[in-house]
Structure formats: C-alpha cells, structure tokens
C-alpha cells in the first residue's frame, strides 16, 4: 500500500516465504508426533491450505500490477485466513514446549533410576563377583544403551524446540535466573532492532522501555 516495494518484489518475497514454510513444515511433519500433536498438525494443515488459497489470490492480484489492487485483496480476507493459522501454530509451539519438558523429565527419571540400578548391580557383583560377572556385563551394556537412547531423545527434543523458537513468527526471548537474555529468535532481534550479540549482553531491564 505504501509503494515501498514493487509488485514483482512482493511476489518474490511471498514465494520465498512460502518455500521456507513448506521446507520447515515438511521437516516437522516427518518427526515423531504425539497424538495431540498429530491432531493440532492436522488442523493446522487444513488452515494452511485455506490460507494458501488467499495467498494465491493475492499473488494473482499483484501480478496485475494494479497499485490499488493489493489493499482490496488483503481486505477481502487474507488476514482472516492467516491469523487462525498462526494462532494454531502458536498452539503447536506451546504443546511442543510442554512435550519437550515431559520427555526431558521422563528421561531424567530414567537416568536416575538407571544410575541407582547400576550402583546396586555393582554392589551385588562385588559381593558375588564370580557367579554374577556375566550378569553384570550384560546389565552394564543395557544401561549404557538406555542412557545413550535417553540422551538422543533429549537432544532431539531440544533441537525440535529450538527449531520452533527460531521460526516462530512471534518474538521469543529466553531469560536466565538473573533475568539476563540467554537466547532469542530472529523475530526478537527484528522487533527490538538489536543484533543477537548485543541482546545477549542485555537484561530484561534494558528492553522494558
């Protein structure tokens, strides 16, 4: 509407955004999803298809190079299609954060239980060294396998959570216990107009104003 970019530039930027969304959405859909995630992902996919229709209509309007057409196209319902989609994706992000917390806690509990079992096995083996030597070796292998599996799950959950934060449309900031900024996504940098390196040196008090 403000004519800061041409219709061709607008179409190019829209296409670039669509390609980026498609890559990340397909990558997400190929990860393990909980039943609740599958339900929300299905609802989101339906909303994405509806939004795509409005976006294609906008691209067609831009292709006419009519300077008055974009405003008409947007007001015709583009945001009414996109807003529910972004809201549903926000639900997915919240759910993923909770799922990641549950996975971490579950794996942490398994780790503690495995560690206790490992100590008990060692003590029993010291008391009955020869008869239980084979049993000890077998259990150690199983414990190592379980611990490696738990670590992989924790890492995968962390990477998925980081991916959601990185590509979220909303600005997201993570603070440590001292309320210093520990991490943020690109939207957070764009919102405040600071570089990532600058924000990592700031506290919540520096950005409240």
Brief overview, please?
The protein has 7 helices and 2 strands.
Largest beta sheet: strand ordering = 1-2
Along the chain, the helix and strand elements come as: HHHHEEHHH
| Rounded radius of gyration (Å) | 25 Å
Q: Kindly name the structural category.
A: mainly alpha
Count of extended strands: 2
Q: How far apart are the termini?
A: 30 Å
State the low-pLDDT regions, or none.
none
Q: What proportion of the residues is helical, as a percent range?
A: over 70%
Mean pLDDT metric: 83
* Largest β sheet strand count, sense and barrel closure: 2 strands, antiparallel
Strand percentage: under 5%
Shape: elongated
State the helix count: 7
Description:
This protein is mainly alpha-helical. Helix content is 77%, strand content 3%. The protein is built from seven helices and two strands. The protein has helices spanning 7-29, 35-63, 69-127, 133-167, 186-192, 196-199, 204-207; strands at residues 173-175, 181-184. The chain has a two-stranded antiparallel ribbon with strand order 1-2. Helix 1 (7-29) runs antiparallel to helix 2 (35-63), helix 2 runs antiparallel to helix 3 and helix 3 packs antiparallel against helix 4. The model has no long low-confidence stretch (mean pLDDT 83).
């Amino acid at each position: 509407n403000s004519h800061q970019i041409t219709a061709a530039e607008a179409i190019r930027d829209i296409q670039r955004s669509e390609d980026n969304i498609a890559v990340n959405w397909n990558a997400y859909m190929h990860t393990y999803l909980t039943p609740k995630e599958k339900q929300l992902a299905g609802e989101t996919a339906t909303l994405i298809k509806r939004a795509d229709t409005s976006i294609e209509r906008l691209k067609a309007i831009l292709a006419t190079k009519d300077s008055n057409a974009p405003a008409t196209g947007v007001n015709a319902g583009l945001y009414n299609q996109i807003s529910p989609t972004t809201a549903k994706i926000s639900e997915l992000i919240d759910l993923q954060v909770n799922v990641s917390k549950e996975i971490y806690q579950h794996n942490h509990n398994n780790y503690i239980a495995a560690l206790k079992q490992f100590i008990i096995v060692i003590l029993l083996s010291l008391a009955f060294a020869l008869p239980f030597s084979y049993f000890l070796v077998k259990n150690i292998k199983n414990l190592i396998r379980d611990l490696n599996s738990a670590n992989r799950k924790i890492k995968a959950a962390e990477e998925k959570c980081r991916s959601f934060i990185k590509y979220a449309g909303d600005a997201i900031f993570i603070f440590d216990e001292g309320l210093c900024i520990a991490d943020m996504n690109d939207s957070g940098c764009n919102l405040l107009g600071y570089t990532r390196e600058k924000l990592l040196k700031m506290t919540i008090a520096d950005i409240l104003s």
